[in-house]
Specification:
The chain is an alpha+beta fold and 173 residues long. The protein has five helices and four strands. The longest helix is centred in the middle third of the chain and has 34 residues.
Length: 173
């Protein structure tokens, strides 16, 4: 469980460590047991009035690619420092306008035991071509729940974070 204090420490470190020219706004930091994801917002593209959506999309894709390539060395250096300090892998993403692209990420396995009714759900998704495997079908289900229950999940995470904070202030066992 990630406490509010632990998340604040990670956010604070990245805010202090990241070059100012890399961002338009404060970085968006997400932390779990294995990974720290840093989403940087860079300046949107400046196109003439009347530019098409396709032109804007491609300009944003170009800005994203340029940022990724131009900052690779410094991002690797910062990630190594953070990985040593916080004992988690660091992943990077960049947001340009309404386009967000994740560069690197951890794909952590999640083992579970499912009863037949749950397996049938996954098999239906595989048989219908929605997913190539049960693992991919399960990942699809988790994404779907995350999209449709984001407010509830957010409240639950916040409540769990408060519980974790209170536990850290209590007596040690």
């Amino acid at each position: 469980m990630i406490t509010n204090e632990a998340l604040e420490r990670v956010r604070g470190w990245f805010v202090g460590r990241l070059p100012e020219e890399w961002r338009v706004t404060a970085p968006e930091i997400t932390v779990d047991r294995e990974e720290i994801t840093v989403v940087l917002t860079v300046a949107d593209v400046d196109l003439p009035d009347g530019s098409s959506d396709a032109e804007r999309d491609e300009a944003r894709a170009g800005r994203t690619k340029a940022f990724r390539e131009d900052t690779r060395g410094r991002r690797i250096e910062i990630a190594r420092e953070a990985e040593h300090r916080f004992e988690r892998k660091v992943s990077w993403a960049v947001r340009v306008g309404d386009r967000t692209e994740l560069f690197t990420h951890v794909a952590a396995p999640a083992m579970t035991r499912l009863r037949q009714p749950e397996r049938l759900v996954l098999d239906t998704l595989v048989d219908a071509g929605v997913a190539r495997s049960r693992a991919e079908a399960l990942a699809w289900c988790v994404k779907l729940v995350g999209q449709h229950e984001s407010d509830w999940l957010g409240e639950l995470r916040e409540a769990m974070s408060h519980v974790a904070d209170v536990r850290t202030k209590g007596p040690s066992a």
